Hints:
- The complex is a heterodimer.
- Helix content of chain A is about 30%, strand content about 20%.
- Chain A has helices spanning about 5-10, 30-45, 90-100, 115-120, 125-135, 170-180; strands at about 20-25, 50-55, 70-75, 105-110, 140-145, 155-160, 180-185.
- A 7-stranded mixed beta sheet of chain A has the order 3-2-4-5-1-6-7, with helices on both faces.
- Chain A is globular, with a radius of gyration of 16 Å.
- Mean pLDDT of chain A is about 85; it is low at about 80-85.
- In chain B, the strands form 6 sheets. In chain B, strands 17-23-22-21-20-19-18 form a 7-stranded antiparallel beta sheet, with no helix packed on it. In chain B, strands 5-6-1-7-8 form a 5-stranded mixed beta sheet. A 4-stranded antiparallel beta sheet of chain B has the order 9-12-10-11.
- In chain B, a hairpin with an 8-residue loop joins strand 20 and strand 21.
- Chain B is about 30% helix and about 30% strand.
- Chain B contains 14 helices and 23 strands.
- Chain B is α+β, with helices and mostly antiparallel strands.
- In chain B, helix 4 runs parallel beside helix 12 (about 245-265), helix 10 runs antiparallel to helix 11 (about 205-215) and helix 13 (about 300-310) packs parallel to helix 14 (about 345-360).
- Classes of the chains: A alpha/beta, B alpha+beta.
- The interface between A and B is large, with 65 and 59 residues.
Amino acid sequence: xxxxxxxxxxxxxxxLPAGAFTEIICAGSAGGGLVLHAALHTTRIARQRVGLxxxxxxxxxxxxxAGLLDHLVWARGGGGGSSASGDLKNIWxxxxxxxxxxxxxxxxxxxxxxxxxxxxxxxxxxxxRLQHALEASRVAALVFSTTAVVPCARHRFRLDDTLRAPxxxxxxxxxxxxxxxxxxxxxxxxxSLSA
Amino acid sequence: xxxxxxxxxxxxxxxxxxxxxxxxxxxxxxxxxxxRAQVAHLDALALRKGLRPGMSAVQxxxxxxxxxxxxxxxxxESEATALLLSSAWRIAPRVEPTSDGxxxxxxxxxxxxxxxxxxxxxRLSLAAxxxxxxxxxxxxxxxxxxxxxxxxxxxxxxxxxSFLKPLPIHLLTLTDNETTLFESLGLxxxxxxxxxxxxxxxxxxxxxxxxxxxxxxxxxQRPLDTATPPSRYFASYELEHPVETLEPLLFLLRRFVxxxxxxxxxxxxxxxxxxxGLRFEDETTHERDFxxxxxxGKxxxxxxxxxxxxxxxxxxxxxxxxxxxxxxxxxxxxxxxLFEASLRDPHQFYDTLARxxxxxxxxxxxxxxxxxxxxxxxxxxxxxxAVIPEYHPAxxxxxxxxxxxxxxxxxxxxxxxxxxxxxxxxxxxVQQAQGRxxxxxxxxxxSGEWWDNDAAWAREEWDVELDRGGLYRLTRTRDGWxxxxxxx
Lengths: 195, 488
């Protein structure tokens, strides 16, 4: 599934793999939001449904042009004493629900803003369970985090904190096109038993 | 062949067991009261323990102390009859409730091959509801009834005379006098009776003789007294023992939903909404209406809605009565467009959203819609649309700059200004947001709703770049400086 960011789509041979996690590590002003915006734009044009699990409730919907979010299901964490304080249980449950639903072409799990300590304390089994759910539904999953947290990610990219003041006056599409994430990990697709 | 008889053997017993299964426990349905109570219907386990129909209830309990003695249950039987009727309407519109647990169906115009398939489907679906079904198909209602009696589990009669010939004569439900008479004449089978001349039998027994002869020869044609399909899809049940836990309640609801959905389906409709009513032991009630995202005929989809609701329901007392009603609508018939991005299974999708909403809060999941205001960060979440419309970009200038990620709520910040411009930032809540400001953009002054003292707002926004990296948005209000977000 193409993201619309050439620096990601090229190493991914066309786009995010279905049924697998792709992790993007980005802290500070690194361009994670630009990747998200580009992916929302691409999927909106293709009329594919996107789920955004916003663990820290930081997504800024009013910054996005009207009509570009008609395909988005935004799940806001951090409310009513849930994940913002570190309790990620509900976020994993919601991720499990959305990743199992084949109506979503892409599920974005934005974990930035959640404490790294809490994230690293998450058992690997949680991620492997989510991975198992993904494999059945064939949803593409994109995880934004500030440190490597997905042990079963098929691809891992790192975006450095490189955005500077002149970026404010550049077109958003141009900024996305200029992103060059470092490809840190590529795992082979696991072979199916029947193959 | 133009009639089918659908029969549930030991109907009062199976109707009750359908709603109250007895696990590894012999069950008997008795008739009569007090000392006159006697065994009328019994299950296989009770038979194995030596119990027989006609025994007194006291005798039965003496033989089998762990026996469950149940009276007939009118609601359970009417539930099972309704289910049987809705199943029968799937094969033909003219259906007569002949007796308890027995229906006669007029099969005129039905094709044999399709009928075979439909009857097997009905038998299997009723078996899943713990109702064993026997089916007899023959040229007349009377012969079909005998065929159902003999069926294991289906009996198709091509030649009525040769089928009836060996059957015992007592199947004609004779009076004592008739039994004595036929025994004295040496008549033991229907074939024996059919060999007698009709005129002489009529001369001896009158109109009754003619009727018995017609039944014995398979010539008893009669018009069916057909039932009318229900106009209301409603079920209620008084629980003998109040229910405290979810499982038995869900079990009963599943039975009712299956029956009601079958009735709605038999009418060529689908369910658009449903209502659940519970009455508790402390005389309080709970009622809830559910509207489905799309009219559905699938019992699974309807049951899931109830299950999901009950899983979150906490009550002070146990349930002693439940009611459920389905509200039908015309089943949606729609051809998907070649490039239309609609939902393949709306029930699954909205079920996913409902479960997520139960975890996060109903106002925290949905599709964002910008509110009609200039106040920043006022976004409401609406239900996602079933069909994603085509994207037509608004003729606005393209979006500039990176996307803002908001801190909700914004962090309080200390800002040092030089010549009315932010020069240094310190924010204790965000570790990276400390340092000298090297670039600024602003101020952008915004305000609104000045006509309303309570809602009026005014702010000054600044975009800043720190010397150690990081693009942030600062806001100054009458309460001070705030770190509103980071550009990413």
